[in-house]
Every structure is written in structure tokens, then in C-alpha cells.
Amino acid sequence: MFFDAFLTHISTLFIRWGKLAWFFSLFSVLCWQTAWGQGKSFKDDMAERTRACTACHGEQGRAGPDGYYPRLAGKPAGYLFNQLKNFQEGKRHYNLMSRLVDPLSDKYLQEIAQYFADLKLPYPPPTMPPQRASAKVLKLGKQLALEGDLERGLPACMACHGPLLTGVQPYVPGLLGLPLDYLNAQLGAWQTHQRKAREPDCMKEVVAKLQSEDLVAVATWLSTQNMPKDSAPASKVSTPLKAPWQCGSAPVLSKLQP
Ligand code: HEC
Ligand code: HEC
């Protein structure tokens, strides 16, 4: 009885106070890691050990409710791992999360990345109805996503993010199923150098070639698109990137693959 009441009390505090929640999350991750290191097991599976993560990223990493906490489920493992390293190395910033990720080893981060990559969950329909955007904006966005802009030397988003824009294994994320706010925030972060990828950082070059109305247009169009039936990232690219385009975090994009 007493223990129940204690738990209820703790969880109320947990919900009310973000900071306390963070503290408990950190504490749990450390406990899980220690227990794991010593080969003990108390419900020792990844779902349990990544509870601190899913507190923000939604159940099974299916994204938080408000478009702020990105989905992790089903994204390519190499991409997820690279992002965890980026947070550790200060190439991306979100303090509450970095503090959790900083102490974790590469091997453990790789396991976490693989765990979320293997979770195949259905995608909800897009939250942005196309009627909310003007036809002109949607047309420009679609053009940039599927064709790029030859005059500006800008490849289509599709050239790197896969023929269905669902990403390419193992390092390139898909661009569908992401909320408008998240897309805007990430593209904006690349423009202000808040977000970086391994050099040569091709996304830095991509956003440098986009005006702000282009960014808005492409993010808007992407966020109105339905996820295709097969949401899996493509297994490879059919056309390798042409020089001078190169992506340090996804070198495989530049190679012809069998
Ligand atoms: C306090 C909330 C919070 C916690 C806890 C948290 N994250 Fe995050 N995470 C975020 C936010 C917010 C972002 C997006 C930050 C940005 O705008 O770049 C993010 C981004 C990510 C990304 C990049 C996703 C992408 O598509 O680029 C990965 C991977 C990730 N988190 C994994 C984890 C893992 C693994 C854990 C547990 C060890 C964790 N997160 C814990 C809030 C959190
Ligand atoms: C030359 C190849 C290339 C092109 C062209 C390209 N991207 Fe990317 N993009 C990448 C790579 C590689 C990453 C992963 C970067 C990393 O590892 O952090 C990425 C990541 C992203 C992300 C982060 C996704 C997430 O879940 O956080 C967004 C958003 C994005 N690209 C949007 C676009 C848009 C919009 C276009 C078209 C205007 C585009 N990209 C064109 C290679 C490309």
C-alpha cells in the first residue's frame, strides 16, 4: 500500500516537473546501463532500457504528440547512430537529451539505433492538409523535392532521400511523415549552423542554395504528402551523386552500387 502511494506520488511529480523527469530519466538510463554491464537482468530488454528516450520520443519511438519530438521508429540505423554521435559531438543541440546520450558508449548507441530502426510501426496520416497551403507554394515545393533546380545546380531532394523520399539505407533519413514544424526547424538549423553533419556536409550546401520561400515551400509540400504503402527506406541509390556533391555522413550516395 505504502509503496503504491509512494509510486503514485513520484509519478505525479514526474509528470509535473520536467526537471525532475529529466533527473529520473538520467538515473534510470544509468541504472539500466550498469545492470546491463554487469550482466544482470531486471526486465532487461531494449524497450525497458530506452524508456527515458520514449518519455520524449513517444511510445516505441513513434514521435511525441506535438511535432516537436521526432519519430525514431523505422529510420535507418546508420542515420540514427550518426545523430546520436552528432548530439554527443555538439553538431546538434538539445541539452536535456544530450545529457542522457553523452555518457553512452558507441556500441550501446549502435544497439539503441538498431533497436529503433527495426521497429516497424504504421505512420499516421499527414497533420498538414494540402488545403492549408497555396497551390503556388505546393507546386514550387514539389518541383524542388522531385526535380531540383538545374539553373541553381540544386539536385532534387529525391536524388539523395530516395525515389519515394522514404530515405536510403543505412544513412539517409526519409522526408515523409515529418511534421512541418520539425522540417522547418531542421532546415533552419542547418542555415544558422546550429545543425551540422559530417563534412562534406551536403545538407549545408543544399540549404545554402535555397531562399527562405523555397524552404517554406519544400517543407510545406513534404508535410502534406502521404507515406507510400511501403515506408521502408530504399536499399540503395540507382544513380550515384555527381561531383561536386558529396555527403560525409552518407558516402555510399556517391558510389555506384551493384
Ligand atoms: C527531454 C526529451 C528527450 C529525451 C529524454 C530524448 N530525446 Fe532524442 N530528441 C529530442 C528532441 C527535442 C530532438 C530534436 C532536436 C532537434 O531539434 O534537433 C531529439 C532528436 C533525437 C534524434 C534525432 C532524430 C532525427 O530524426 O534526426 C535521435 C536519434 C534521438 N533524439 C534519440 C534519442 C535517444 C536514443 C534517447 C534516449 C537515450 C533520447 N533521444 C532522449 C528530445 C529528447
Ligand atoms: C546531396 C544529397 C542530399 C540532397 C540533394 C538533399 N539531402 Fe537532405 N539529407 C542528406 C543527408 C546525407 C542527410 C543526413 C544528414 C545527417 O547525417 O545528419 C540529410 C538530412 C536531411 C534532413 C533531416 C531529417 C531528419 O529526420 O532530421 C532534412 C529535413 C533534409 N535532409 C531535407 C532535405 C530537403 C528538403 C532536400 C531538398 C531541397 C534535401 N534534403 C536534399 C542528403 C541530401
- Whole-number mean pLDDT: 86
Give the helices and strands as they follow along the chain.
HHHHHHHHHHHH
CATH topology label of the largest domain = Cytochrome Bc1 Complex, Chain D, domain 2
Number of helices: 12
Shape: globular
Task: Set down the secondary structure blueprint.
Blueprint: H1 2-16, H2 18-37, H3 46-49, H4 51-57, H5 77-88, H6 95-101, H7 106-117, H8 135-146, H9 157-161, H10 180-191, H11 202-208, H12 212-224
Helix pairs in contact: 1-2, 2-4, 5-7, 8-12, 10-11, 10-12
Bound molecules: heme C (HEC) (2 copies).
Could you walk me through the main structural features you see in this protein, from its secondary elements to its overall organization?
The structure is a single chain. The protein has helices at 2-16, 18-37, 46-49, 51-57, 77-88, 95-101, 106-117, 135-146, 157-161, 180-191, 202-208, 212-224. It is an all-alpha fold and 258 residues long. Helix 5 crosses helix 7, helix 10 packs across helix 11 (202-208) and helix 10 packs antiparallel against helix 12 (212-224). It is globular. Bound molecules: heme C (2 copies). The site of one heme C has 27 residues, from helix 5, helix 8, helix 9, helix 10 and helix 11. One heme C is lined by residues 70, 79, 82, 144-145, 155, 157, 159-161, 172-173, 175, 178, 183, 186-187, 197, 202-203, 206, 218, 241, 245, 247, 249-250.
